[in-house]
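Target chain:
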Amino acid sequence: MFVRRLRGEDQEEELVIDYVTRDVNNMTVKMPYQCFINGKFEDAEDGKTYNTVNPTDGSVICKVSYASVADVDRAVSAAKEAYDNGPWGKMNPRDRGRLLYRLADLMEEHQEELATIETIDSGAVYTLALKTHVGMSIQTFRYFAGWCDKIQGSTIPINQARPNRNLTFTKKEPLGVCAIVIPWNYPLMMLAWKSAACLAAGNTLVLKPAQVTPLTALKFAELTVKAGVPKGVINIVPGSEPPADDFCCFCCSCAVSNLKKVSLELGGKSPLIIFSDCDMDKAGMSSVYFNKGENCIAAGRLFVEESIHDEYIRRVVEEIKTMKIGDPLDRSTDHGPQNHKAHLDKLVEYCEIGVKEGATLVYGGRQVDRPGFFMEPTVFTDVEDHMFIAKEESFGPVMVVSKFKDGDVDGVLSRANNTEFGLASGVFTRDINKAMYVSERLEAGTVFVNTYNKTDVAAPFGGFKQSGFGKDLGKSEQNTHCIITLYHFKTSFMTMRIMCMCIQVRKPCMSTCGLKL
């Protein structure tokens, strides 16, 4: 190996990137736009491209390669080869963790550039993109880098059949090639949530970013090469066709039933119950309008106790009027454009249906009169349970409010749980007994009490019912990306006796002594 290196025979090929550059946000951003397959950026096999658009003004940012079925096949083959024969799966887990730490460090070094790309490609307000879209992505990779050498099995005591003795243990092993399809509301953060645990476990992956927001995923691919991640481990295929492999992690997508292990994060219509004894200044606003309402756990329906309903709505409208709508790169902007034109059109239609069915449109409901895809923050009241807007997710800045009678705790719980979804929920009250009673009975994967939208990389995230299954983040996600293999070793009584003696003498080396014997 030393001689071959001296001859230059094993040198890594230099990464060649044909960037699109833009002078924006007081910097020059450099954006890859091609498919990333087997460690290289390259055009789609058929040369097909599509436009990715800046939602702030509707202008074209650049043309992006549109991966074909043949490109996806090549990406899958590269990931399979990297898993079967490459260094990634055979690497010492601690070394794999070191590479993921290095990747997180590079993301942090490029965080302003990543946040700028995220803003112009998705419409996220820059301050939020920097703190949450990019900031939590960095945290996620650091968290799972630390898990690489802590994914462990267990020993299991079983009944013995003399004279034979058995040693039984499990190992957590990587699945192989994982296919990941991510949504457009948090492009980089969803990439991190879905791929960091996958990589930490030793899997390889093929990832399809949302068609309308591919640019931060492709920039991320560039950083993985700089971090030293081996070729073929990570493959990015922009376009519209989902890949299929040993494992599929779909977010806001449909899974094909083909006996693959699947993790699904789907839709939500998260109920938020606001009792009269709450702190009204802190209840509800961010639960709806955070990230322009393009938030899977957004409070899709608010239930407000009758005695405070009118005052609560008055305060909400007052606060909306102070929100600055405008260029998301402006640090003073509170509310940026919706992600893309088709989504804006659906939001306008959603509001029209609400009015048609008899709900009261208190504020908003229209496109903002300016270039770009801006939607007014909207408030509906007098929403009845049978209405379309009471049952369907808007995925936008639309507050849907219903009253409930004072003191009718069980009644409002029944209404809140009367949904096919179960991603998140919330309750605002100063009464701890009421908070405990309600939170224990809300049917959702996450229940917020006197707060909302608080997520953390160490806490598991996922829903019930039609909101999907499987968990992202936290310790539990390692189980999603591993298979558990059971091993039975038949040993003689004497061997087991010697093993036990070694364990007693050298307790710190328990597992080592056992395996050697």
In short: DSSP finds 16 helices and 23 strands in the chain. The two ends are 33 Å apart (CA to CA).
